[in-house]
Design goal:
With 443 residues, the protein is mostly helical. It has 17 helices and no strands. It is 69% helix and 0% strand.
């Protein structure tokens, strides 16, 4: 549904908001004492190992890792750290990616909806604090979402060259996270529906598939030369499947699965290659699913809960801290009734500021989720969703189904949520117009 209203007033202030936004990002980079943990630390360590051994990722020493993860992203880290070996290099790269993401998000939202919706989308993006926190982190989400957005932007430009470039970027997204396949699957489904309706297959889409194939072949051959195997994407699928299919599964990440006597325990992990470990994890998960299909199906909604209920993906970074989670703080407060230990820092001022920011952010997040949901339901009923908007929706649905099959965590929803922000923005634009028309009638 396209609704066009004047955007001069908010467009005038948007450029100043963007300048302020990037100043805040730069200040975060300057004053943060970056100390990566969890996956962020693991990615950084892999890149440093490759630099030390004079190889690209995966290096030969990574044969015995648990899996190969985000090979394109790790190789980008290697290049960044070769230029300047510091986490600052990663943050500057994130700053640049955020700038490109805003530019592309604005342009493809403008093509699908209107200038006003595009402006509102960018304002929402700026106010969405997890992106700001990601700038001083080292996760794949920013880079992956940028690649997907770039692929969608070139797709919307139509034509053989833009379609081929779209395929290149989508192929690159697959080389960061296998979730990139969801866009390809969405395109194929839409193409089949178009063929069924018009009996004419959109052959221009072949340029997209060609671009994906070219990137996968080029990157896979590159890795085969230095690693000895045709690797073009992460091999984390089996372990993610196991995390969501075992006796201790909760729907989210539960490390108990790796304990002795549990499904993911390996007696001699250093003697097994990532392929062997992957086969073991896959067989363990598949066996459990066959024996407990009812439990596995019952876990699917919990995976959605673990992904979408909380949204403090990187909020703690804004306090120059790590591993503060709102869910843990709430549990500490309501089970132990101990405000003092809800946040691991001295001083009530920081604690109160943290709670206020988390509550305000989550209210904002739930409002956005509600707006997206209402927009989708309303436009489905009105049959007013364009093919391009259907592509975004289809990608989101397929991505959520993948989460339901594997495991849920708040970070996994980031690409989905960012690509659905135009829906929320268009909802707000339409509501504004309705209120404006109502006020004009009563005047």
């Amino acid at each position: 549904m396209k609704v066009r209203i004047s955007a001069k007033s908010i467009r005038f202030y948007l450029k100043y908001l963007l300048i302020l936004y990037f100043i805040v990002q730069i200040l975060l980079i300057i004053f943060s004492q970056i100390n990566y943990t969890s996956d962020a630390h693991y990615y950084y360590r892999l890149a440093e190992q490759c630099i030390q051994s004079g190889e690209f990722y995966p290096a030969k020493i990574h044969q015995y890792e648990d899996f190969i993860v985000a090979p394109l992203y790790i190789n980008v880290l290697i290049l960044l750290l070769k230029i300047y070996n510091s986490p600052v290099s990663v943050s500057i790269f994130n700053l640049f990616i955020t700038f490109l993401q805003i530019l592309l998000l604005f342009r493809f939202t403008k093509r699908i909806f209107s200038v006003t919706t595009a402006v509102i989308t960018i304002i929402i993006y700026i106010l969405y604090l997890n992106t700001l926190g990601f700038v001083i982190s080292n996760y794949t989400e920013l880079f992956f979402t940028f690649l997907i957005t770039a692929g969608l932007y070139f797709y919307l430009n139509k034509g053989s060259k833009p379609f081929f470039l779209s395929g290149i970027f989508l192929g690159a997204s697959i080389a960061v996270r296998p979730l990139g396949w969801a866009i390809l699957l969405a395109l194929l489904i839409i193409s089949l529906f178009q063929f069924r309706k018009s009996r004419k297959y959109p052959f221009d889409n072949l340029y997209i598939y060609a671009g994906i194939l070219v990137f996968i072949l080029a990157f896979g051959i590159f890795n085969n030369i230095h690693f000895g195997k045709f690797i073009f994407t992460s091999t984390t699928g089996p372990v993610n499947l196991l995390l969501g299919a075992n006796d201790d599964a909760t729907g989210g990440f539960n490390p108990d699965v790796y304990k002795k006597g549990k499904a993911g325990f390996l007696a001699n992990p250093d003697s097994l290659t990532y392929d062997q470990k992957g086969d073991y994890y896959y067989n363990q998960a598949l066996s459990w699913i066959k024996n407990h299909p009812d439990k596995w199906i019952a876990l699917a909604p919990l995976k959605i809960v673990h992904t979408f209920l909380w949204d403090d993906i990187s909020i703690s970074n804004l306090f120059l801290q790590k591993d503060w989670y709102f869910s843990n703080s709430l549990k500490e407060l309501f089970t132990k009734k101990d405000f003092e230990n809800t946040v691991p820092v001295k001083g009530n001022f920081i604690k109160i500021l943290y709670w206020v920011l988390e509550i305000v952010h989550h209210i904002f997040y739930y409002i956005l989720l509600t707006a997206i949901f209402i927009w989708v339901i309303k436009n489905i009923k009105l049959k007013s969703i364009s093919t391009d908007a259907i592509l975004l929706l289809m990608f989101s649905v397929i991505s959520i189904l993948i989460i339901m099959i594997t495991v849920g965590t708040p970070r996994y929803k980031y690409p989905i949520f960012i690509l659905l922000l135009p829906f929320a923005a268009n909802y707000f634009e339409n509501r504004f117009l309705q209120v404006k028309e109502k006020n004009e009638i009563h005047q």
